[in-house]
Amino acid sequence: MEIVKTQPVLTQHFANLIQQNRLAHAYLLAGEAGAGKKELAVWVAKLLFCEQPSATGPCDHCSECVRIGAHEHPDVVEIAPTGLSIKIDQIRYLKSEFAKSGVEGAQKVFIIEDAEKMSTSAANGLLKFLEEPSGQVTAFLLTSEPNQILPTVISRCQLLELQAPSLTDLVEKFTAVGVAQNQAVLLANLTKDPQQAQELAESEDFQKLLTHLWQWYSAILKNDLMAFVKVQADLVPLVGSRDQQDKLLFMIALLARDLMLYANEPQQQFVFTMFTQDFADKLRNISAAAATEACELVLKKWRLLSFNVSIQNVLESLTLELCSCYHQ
Ligand SMILES: [Zn+2]
């Protein structure tokens, strides 16, 4: 029942609506991956069906709550894109599931994930379904891209936006799915989705990139020109796509920022907690002013990527300029 902690306002809002019997027919829950859209929809479904609800929410252990949690409740149907889109057949499936289950007029809930991926015909089918007075139906459409949803669909829904999760919440969620404590803060800066964080943490390439990033940066901090060689030998082969290149430059910016913070005030929360123990040693001959200037340098070089300068050129010239910046 994590969602009560991460979305206290919205869970309370829905609890009040249910208590006053004022739940609307359709909600569009908008928020980034990891914000808890699905968890919120499932929480509301449980509260609607729970046999022993309390003021704080569903009990989470009665047979209704358990079946909903296991995605086995006949009156709570979930739909997600198959392939690239949600197709009209899936909306038809939804209708048929509801037609065969439950008593006429009984409460039903459906949850559509990535609702922006509904095909136009699926969206039209859904609209018709929402208009048919088939008992007490509550729809949750979930999306991280509300601007890609058809206006006709939005106009039938109440739009609720979920706040992005805080860094502390993310770190807690990531470690709960098995991400190492000393990588959780870094990963929370790269993604808000626990599954993605887990995939990155388990990816051999990502771990290699982390190691090579720190070896490369350590060489720069020693003014060792091996750093220049490491660009082509170690870093470039690990960042083939533009997205990976951007991520690398972002990580370099975060690392330069960590070092600047450390040079100014060593007692802080750092992103690269796995390397913090080496910071004192690596920064021994480096001034706080140089560490600050280095951050600006990284940001300036990062911009070059959007002018189609190759990643190798960007990193090589960054290497030379960082060396002279840290050792002026
Ligand atoms: Zn219950």
From TrEMBL:
Gene3D superfamilies: P-loop containing nucleotide triphosphate hydrolases (3.40.50.300). SUPFAM superfamilies: P-loop containing nucleoside triphosphate hydrolases (SSF52540). This is DNA polymerase III subunit delta.
